[in-house]
Amino acid sequence: MKNSKLKFPDLLSIPKIDKVGVEERVATFQTRSIKNESKIQGLNMILNMIDLTTLEGKDTPGKVKQMCYKAMHLHDSFDDLPTVAAVCVYPSMVKIAKDEVKNSGVKVASVSTAFPSGQSPLDVKIYDTKFAISEGADEIDMVISRGKFLSGDYNFVFDEIAAIKDICGKVRLKVILETGELVTLDNVRKASEIAMYAGADFIKTSTGKIQPAATMQVTYTMLLAIKDFYQKTGKMIGMKPAGGISTSKLALHNLVMVKEVLGNDWLNNEYFRFGASSLANDVLMQVLKSKTGVYQSPDYFSID
Amino acid sequence: MRLEILKTYKLYIGGQFPRTESGRFYTPKNKKGAPLGNMCLASRKDVKNAVSSARKAFGGWSEKTAFNRSQILYRIAEMLEGRRDQFIAELVKQGSTLKQAGEEVNLSIDRIVYYAGWCDKYLQVFSSVNPVSSSHFNFSLQEPVGVVGVIAPQDTSLIGLVSAILPIIAGGNTCLVLASENIPLCSITFAEVLNSSDVPGGVVNILTGNEKELIETFASHMDINSVLYGGASKENIQLIQELAVVNVKRVHYYPMNWSNEDGQSVYLINDFQEIKTTWHPIENIGGSSSVY
Known about the structure:
Number of domains of chain A: 1
Shape of chain B: globular
CATH superfamily of chain B: Aldehyde Dehydrogenase, Chain A, domain 1
Number of helices of chain A: 11
Shape of chain A: globular
Distance between the termini of chain B: 75 Å
Structural class of chain A: alpha/beta
Largest interface: A-B, 8 and 12 residues
Strand content of chain B: 15-25%
Mean pLDDT of chain B: 94
Number of helices of chain B: 10
Mean pLDDT of chain A: 94
Oligomer: heterodimer
CATH class of chain A: Alpha Beta
CATH topology of chain B: Aldehyde Dehydrogenase, Chain A, domain 1
Strand order of the largest sheet of chain A: 7-6-5-4-3-2-1-8
Distance between the termini of chain A: 42 Å
Low-confidence stretches of chain A: none
CATH class of chain B: Alpha Beta
Radius of gyration of chain A: 19 Å
Strand order of the largest sheet of chain B: 7-6-5-8-9
Order of helices and strands of chain B: EEHHHHHEEEHEHEHEHEHE
Largest sheet of chain A: 8 strands, parallel
Structural class of chain B: alpha/beta
Order of helices and strands of chain A: HHEHEHEHEHHEHEHEHEH
Number of domains of chain B: 1
Helix content of chain A: 40-55%
């Protein structure tokens, strides 16, 4: 391995998670009242943090092109809307997406390492990743081997992430923990540590294929891990909750949580993303509601 | 000595009985000044939630077979019949005499049965095959307009509500209803009837609150396709018509006494329908011989 400086985290020193405490803390984020201007600001911020995602077996070039268009033109009848942060697609669609977004500032993220299950040999995962990068991916979303993790083979998981990061180089690596399969918050914390020490630039909750996905409890646990990692090493790791966040309200609660746990430095799309497909429309409807004063209808927004 | 268990009247949204999102309440009183109960004072956000529920329920409800809708509507009547005494007691509490109350409940039940009967018949009455001078088989038929916002008649507690809701849901629409502000008890109890009679959650959503506060939201919400205004205020009608233009809602109001036996009509079902016309190519013009 090129990067021999990598250090395996001391898993014994990881704090245990108090589930009841987490529930209680998370509940307080949901009581914050966010009014008018700060709400509009928050909604615009959310739009700019979205990784617009399509990860289905039935994805076609046409669907991907349409999504890329939407990523750049969220709702053309209003001028001052931001673009989303990135589009997230399968490796086979990367080139198509890249040709569409060109220099718009929207990045192309590709899932890899045999997404969503991750049940393939390392060679295949490495090829998968190399392919995505050669097609033009700006970011890689990899999945960890949950089976290995759950059977206690933490070194395997660590080495695999490190190997993929090796290939990525400057391409940003998001590591998907698939928290819905990790069962406990203690495991989520452990997996977060392993991913961060192995070189992840982002840690991401879920593939979106498993329920539960990005619950606030899980995101909170991962944010705490990021905070501790930052205090120990000085390195800022990004966070991407994905799956299940489909309403503006929930997204705003997530922003509140990020601000209160990590602070303003994380409140931009360099360090915080939402993985979502239907969130954008709901946020757009809220933005338009605040601009026009009239509750909106999905009939007047693009179908995605 | 037993402590009386009083009912908490809440809203009815999406098949659930939530409290108002705003946490507010009001206490309507009857003519003698006795409080009727603490009612939820619904807010704009409750309207928004009710619209989302109604929209979600629309697909399933409009695609049910007409016959099945008819069965479900008849079931409402059955459930209401079983709860006669409860409704009579509430009506009396709100100021009706025992005789008036009994008549109002009877009429409500009969009206539900009337609309249950029409569910699988109005289409035959209103749809048509149209003569055209080209090689087409041309026919028009009714489809539900979508989500309907109802401001229920304010002067009755039950019959006005029933008369407004039934033609709308009989035609496959879903609705949200603002109940009578001053005599709202029957509305929420009627929600319990709906909830126990196979009407899918979200098909009817019932709110209690202030008409003046919510009327603009009903009229301007982009996801409401039609509004039924049950009152008689010319100002309100004008206000609704003005605001309804944002998404060209159909606005209907009926200067009608619902407590009358003839306060029901199949034309009310038709008012909440859109017409779809289909041009189907066929071989010959004229139609002297049947080719379809």
